[in-house]
Amino acid sequence: MRKRSHRARAVLAVTTTAVLGVAGCDVVGGSSGPSGTKAKPSPSRTSVWDSSPASVAAVGDSITRGFDACAILTDCPEVSWATGNSPRVDSLAVRLLGKSKAATHSWNYAVTGARMADLPGQMTRAVRRKPQLVAVMAGANDACRKTTSAMTSIADFRAQFEQAMSTLRGSLPKAQVYVASVPDLKRLWSQGRTNALGKQVWKLGICPSMLGDADAVNAAATQRRDTVQKRVEDYNKVLREVCAKDRRCRFDDDAVYDYRFGTDQLSHWDWFHPSVNGQSRLAEIAYRTVTAKEE
């Protein structure tokens, strides 16, 4: 018990020091992964869809950078669900291209802390590589704000995603796009709050709109969390609708959002971002969606 207590204090001490420069929900991006969840392609897409692209670029936030999956407050792109090379994850790029080709034909332009407003800029950088498939996961940071009133509006979220898609299409009209849904942040709260150390880490400023005052279950706290959850659902509706207008875009049909992840899929540094196991689950969902045949 004394060793465990010492370790907990050490983690909190390191976290407190490091968070001074990156505290707040801007450094986070959500969590998740699959197994059993069936991902379906968006309708009317398969006639031009190639399930064997020759190159992959990824854009998004801390989830796609593998943040907190390997070490505290550190990106770990080698375990990224989208482009990582770790055999423990078997990323989307590795599954589609093979490990050797993925090393030279996949690129990760995601940035920890990014919101949807940052996606057009990331897309500009990605198109220079002329990827045949672009993997997108963004939106958790738009909901993870200091207050619910600071969350990105649905209208702005839509306009920003449409701008990112327009940026892509202006340069690569035939590139394919995989769009992952925003994870279930309320489930993340319900799973992570079972860990006392995790709740202490959350107090440093991780996604306060959802995770603040984690033990509170009064009417105000419940309404706050429900407001965040509704916004996430609205974001996913936007992703679905914008993607449906593009013949070469596939949305995951809420597979990431619906996945019933547990603590094994959460980083044990912050009980918020995906662990290596969680990254692997995200890769499974993405691969199923990209390779699914039209029903």
Offer a concise description of the structure:
With 295 residues, this protein is of the alpha/beta class.
Instruction: Please outline the major beta sheet.
Output: 5 strands, parallel
Rg estimate, integer Å: 18 Å
User: What is the chain-wise order of helices and strands?
Assistant: HEHHHEHEHHEHHHHEHH
Q: What's the overall average pLDDT, rounded?
A: 88
Strand order of the largest sheet: 2-1-3-4-5
Low-confidence stretches are 1-38, 42-46
| CATH fold-level name | Rossmann fold
CATH superfamily (homologous) name: SGNH hydrolase
Give the helix level as a range of percent: 40-55%
Looking at the overall shape, the CATH architecture is 3-Layer(aba) Sandwich
- Write down how many β-strands occur, each being a DSSP E stretch of 2 or more residues: 5
End-to-end distance: 54 Å
> How many helices in DSSP terms?
13
Shape: globular
Domain tally: 1
Strand content: 5-15%
Helix-and-strand structural type: alpha/beta
Instruction: Give the C-level CATH assignment.
Output: Alpha Beta
